[in-house]
């Protein structure tokens, strides 16, 4: 008997928990901090591996994004490895940057005895600085030798930049008695905005799924997760979400079959888990904030209001100071472009009602301040204009954000 799509459970794991995958990380000297892990290799042992990717919408796309898109197309989604570095974005680096990405993929392919088009590359870090292949290429044989299940967890550390913690999510389920795992790691802390952000995410699964279906399901999962995270309203040059499926569980995800919805639920659970971790770890952030919009006239209106509130520096600084300034929330909704009647709006934070029918709800200031000091907040606004809803994850703005970004390059 098959499990339903509600039976995915979170478990301890890493990128090598799904059958067929190994990973490793080394300190190549790309980051400024001596000895910091900054180069990782993720590889599948299965020749049947399929792959899919979703990338930045920024017109200024980094060299690794351009090359990985190309390799996914040329291989028809038959990629088996990813090389990723942190500390240098390899963006806006001209022909030298393109050559660095190509040389990295070619060298890794030779070591793994696969085609160069079966290797994807990803980078994150400072924009506009030449990526030194003399730091990367000599480390690829070391990475190949270190590839193992035991070393896989280190890959989650090697991709971090200003992040304060690794971001890993793994889920498990069974389909017709056979176990399947989906695992993901991500990095992201600043330059985070819907349509993806300065974030990288790598997902592995031992399900058997065609490249085209994997691509469509990944697009849907990204839309409901990474595209609903905002830290500071900036969309990056390097955003990449890459999924690899080894097929070694022998559980096939089939179009039009219940397996499709079942797998989509697990993939969505991993992506949303990682997205929440990114929002929680926003640069300088002290609070994870979920913005929920209810009662909008249309889904587009709901989305507009959620994003306007989640992106508002005034809302985010008020939340940082535990200030129940609901006027900033309704103001953001008002300029979002959504249509609603301001005299019908209700606003609450967690269980505390701040605004009722467009005016002050008569809350206790001291109680409100205590409530807003919580580390997780749900800002809920009901427009009472229809039935559409939307949600985004964001964080507060503190002085720590300025401290990090005023000296990020230097």
Q: What do these coordinates show?
A:
The chain is an alpha+beta fold. It is 31% helix and 25% strand. It has helices spanning 63-74, 94-112, 133-136, 140-146, 155-158, 211-223, 258-280, 299-311, 313-320, 326-335, 365-372, 399-405; strands at 9-10, 21-26, 39-44, 50-55, 81-88, 119-126, 167-175, 178-188, 199-205, 240-245, 288-296, 346-349, 352-356, 359-360, 376-382, 388-395. The chain has a six-stranded mixed β-sheet with strand order 1-7-8-9-10-4, sandwiched between helices. Strand 12 (346-349) and strand 13 (352-356) form a beta hairpin. Helix 1 crosses helix 2, helix 6 (211-223) packs across helix 7 (258-280) and helix 8 (299-311) packs across helix 10.
Topology readout:
Blueprint: E1 9-10, E2 21-26, E3 39-44, E4 50-55, H1 63-74, E5 81-88, H2 94-112, E6 119-126, H3 133-136, H4 140-146, H5 155-158, E7 167-175, E8 178-188, E9 199-205, H6 211-223, E10 240-245, H7 258-280, E11 288-296, H8 299-311, H9 313-320, H10 326-335, E12 346-349, E13 352-356, E14 359-360, H11 365-372, E15 376-382, E16 388-395, H12 399-405
Parallel strand pairs: 5-6, 9-10, 11-15
Antiparallel strand pairs: 1-7, 2-3, 3-5, 4-10, 7-8, 8-9, 11-16, 12-13, 12-15, 13-14
